[in-house]
């Protein structure tokens, strides 16, 4: 009889459909600041395709999505944070247009603003969001099979579920934390301890890291499982994680690295409505040519020369502070033989320096400072090379979008970049360098230029890159396996 048990377990895991609740600050297309939005906008869709019921709960920002869609109210209540009572309402989008149910938590006075982060009351905002979401789930007649939280904005949920008196009946729901970026932890002072719903003060140590309340550290301690968005990043954060390395190596036993996928419906060069000409692996040469010509026309660049690009948040983690010097050097040394186009926003000093280059190298260089989703698609489609000189890169999605659109990635060997890009010198398709330095990236740009001169090789690499499968199919199943561990 006992011999049959493993088969029974396998049977159950294959045929048992789970209800999964994702809680996140971002979800594309409702609200996206970076890669977190992409992941939470795609993973649930792919989990649903596997037959499970994945849902997303996020704040109701003042976004286009809120005004352009129809919603029904599924919860009406009040959230108390410190001495203030906020009215909370949870809205469900009626048509399942994203491929999963999306629930928006409207909290008057806290989320009826356009931005996602960066307000002085972010601590209050995200605590209120987490309490409202749990108060709602606490009223359900059934329990979800798993609660999956993403980054520090929802990192207090595993603690609250396990320890707050009002959620005691939910304490056996398994919780999973995915760390998209351990640099940001959401710490705040102990003077805000009274923001929490009542719990036994003997458990305050589960909130503490370095004499502060640290939502990411608390989630690492309290979640049943911890995942990182690539296997290499899991290795790296046991050594360097903005102060959490000790805790992460201590909790290594319950941690797993799962490589992000990409939404191949949103990022499909053949059907992409944001680009001027769709293409597939067979029509890639004419497709890229048309997209490059249009991009170069709009940005006053020379489409007969190789086009290098950078897309992303202009912050230290991405190596953005070095970009101006990298570009000045490359433009000076190439003697007018290359083009560079930047799309990004962030550190204002870096933004100013990147804008400044336009005055010295008009016709060879341009920058769009700001956020522009459609332009990002046009650049992946039209560029020849994409630079990612990151100091830290938990996974990185840009390189995977670049591969899908036949753009050769130039990346630092770190985190998820190391897991997804193989250097041409090792029989691969990308250009890799070891350090985030002006010299290393400059050398890599030189190698890319040499490669560009061999157009037969470039064509072969492009076709190969487009055949690489980075869709969510595999990783979505990996998460299901983790929920069932
Ligand atoms: N100015 C702009 N205009 C338009 N689009 C822009 C833009 N700036 C960035 N983007 C887009 O934002 C996304 C960035 O995703 P990344 O994964 O590269 O980085 P991010 O650091 O935000 O995410 C974190 O979470 C993700 C998801 O887990 C990890 O892959 C990553 O390593 C980790 O740092 C891409 O879709 C990119 O095209």
UniProtKB/TrEMBL annotation:
<feature type="domain" description="Glycosyl transferase family 1">
    <location>
        <begin position="292"/>
        <end position="427"/>
    </location>
</feature>
<feature type="binding site">
    <location>
        <position position="32"/>
    </location>
    <ligand>
        <name>ADP-alpha-D-glucose</name>
    </ligand>
</feature>
<dbReference type="InterPro" id="IPR013534">
    <property type="entry name" value="Starch_synth_cat_dom"/>
</dbReference>
<dbReference type="GO" id="GO:0004373">
    <property type="term" value="F:alpha-1,4-glucan glucosyltransferase (UDP-glucose donor) activity"/>
</dbReference>
<dbReference type="InterPro" id="IPR011835">
    <property type="entry name" value="GS/SS"/>
</dbReference>
<keyword id="KW-0320">Glycogen biosynthesis</keyword>
<dbReference type="GO" id="GO:0009011">
    <property type="term" value="F:alpha-1,4-glucan glucosyltransferase (ADP-glucose donor) activity"/>
</dbReference>
<dbReference type="Pfam" id="PF00534">
    <property type="entry name" value="Glycos_transf_1"/>
</dbReference>
<dbReference type="GO" id="GO:0005978">
    <property type="term" value="P:glycogen biosynthetic process"/>
</dbReference>
<protein>
    <recommendedName>
        <fullName>Glycogen synthase</fullName>
        <ecNumber>2.4.1.21</ecNumber>
    </recommendedName>
</protein>
<comment type="function">
    <text>Synthesizes alpha-1,4-glucan chains using ADP-glucose.</text>
</comment>
<dbReference type="Pfam" id="PF08323">
    <property type="entry name" value="Glyco_transf_5"/>
</dbReference>
<comment type="similarity">
    <text>Belongs to the glycosyltransferase 1 family. Bacterial/plant glycogen synthase subfamily.</text>
</comment>
<comment type="pathway">
    <text>Glycan biosynthesis; glycogen biosynthesis.</text>
</comment>
<keyword id="KW-0328">Glycosyltransferase</keyword>
<keyword id="KW-0808">Transferase</keyword>
<dbReference type="InterPro" id="IPR001296">
    <property type="entry name" value="Glyco_trans_1"/>
</dbReference>
<feature type="domain" description="Starch synthase catalytic">
    <location>
        <begin position="20"/>
        <end position="249"/>
    </location>
</feature>
């Amino acid at each position: 009889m006992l011999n049959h048990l493993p088969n029974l377990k396998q049977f159950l895991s294959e045929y048992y459909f789970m209800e999964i609740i994702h809680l996140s600050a971002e979800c594309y297309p409702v609200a996206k600041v970076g890669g977190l939005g992409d992941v939470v906008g795609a993973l649930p869709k792919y989990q649903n395709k596997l037959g499970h019921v994945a849902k997303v709960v996020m704040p109701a920002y003042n976004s286009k999505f809120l005004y352009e869609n129809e919603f029904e109210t599924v919860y009406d209540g009040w959230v108390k944070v410190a001495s203030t009572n906020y009215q909370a309402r949870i809205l469900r989008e009626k048509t399942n247009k994203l491929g999963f149910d999306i629930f928006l938590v409207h909290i008057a006075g806290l989320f009826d603003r356009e931005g996602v982060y960066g307000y002085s009351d972010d601590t209050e905002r995200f605590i209120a969001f987490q309490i409202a979401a749990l108060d709602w789930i606490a009223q359900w007649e059934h329990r979800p099979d798993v609660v999956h939280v993403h980054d520090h904005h929802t990192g207090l949920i595993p603690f609250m579920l396990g320890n707050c008196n009002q959620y005691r009946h939910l304490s056996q729901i398994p919780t999973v934390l995915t760390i998209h970026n351990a640099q940001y932890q959401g710490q705040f002072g102990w003077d805000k301890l009274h923001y929490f719903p009542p719990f036994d003060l003997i458990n305050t140590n589960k909130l503490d890291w370095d004499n502060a309340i640290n939502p990411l550290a608390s989630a690492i301690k309290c979640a049943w499982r911890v995942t990182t968005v690539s296997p290499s990043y899991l290795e790296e954060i046991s050594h360097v994680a903005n102060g959490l390395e000790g805790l992460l190596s201590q909790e290594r036993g319950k941690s797993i690295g799962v490589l992000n996928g990409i939404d191949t419906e949103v990022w499909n060069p053949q059907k992409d409505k944001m680009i001027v000409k769709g293409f597939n692996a067979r029509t890639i040469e004419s497709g890229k040519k048309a997209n490059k010509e249009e991009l170069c026309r709009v940005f006053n660049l020379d489409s007969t020369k190789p086009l290098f690009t950078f897309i992303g948040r202009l912050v230290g983690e991405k190596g953005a502070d070095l970009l101006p010097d990298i570009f000045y050097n490359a433009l000076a040394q190439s003697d007018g033989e290359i083009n560079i186009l930047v799309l990004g926003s962030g550190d204002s000093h870096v933004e100013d320096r990147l804008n400044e280059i336009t005055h010295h190298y008009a016709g060879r260089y341009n920058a769009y400072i700001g956020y522009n989703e459609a332009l990002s698609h046009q650049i992946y489609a039209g560029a020849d090379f994409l630079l990612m000189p990151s100091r830290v890169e938990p996974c990185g999605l840009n390189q995977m979008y670049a591969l899908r659109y036949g753009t050769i990635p130039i990346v630092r060997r770190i985190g998820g970049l190391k897991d997804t890009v193989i250097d041409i010198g090792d029989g691969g398709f990308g250009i890799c360098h070891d350090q985030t330095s002006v010299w290393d990236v400059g050398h890599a740009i030189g190698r890319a230029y040499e490669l560009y001169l061999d157009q037969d090789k470039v064509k072969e690499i492009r076709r190969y890159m487009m055949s690489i499968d980075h869709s969510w199919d595999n990783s979505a199943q990996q998460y299901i396996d983790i929920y069932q561990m």
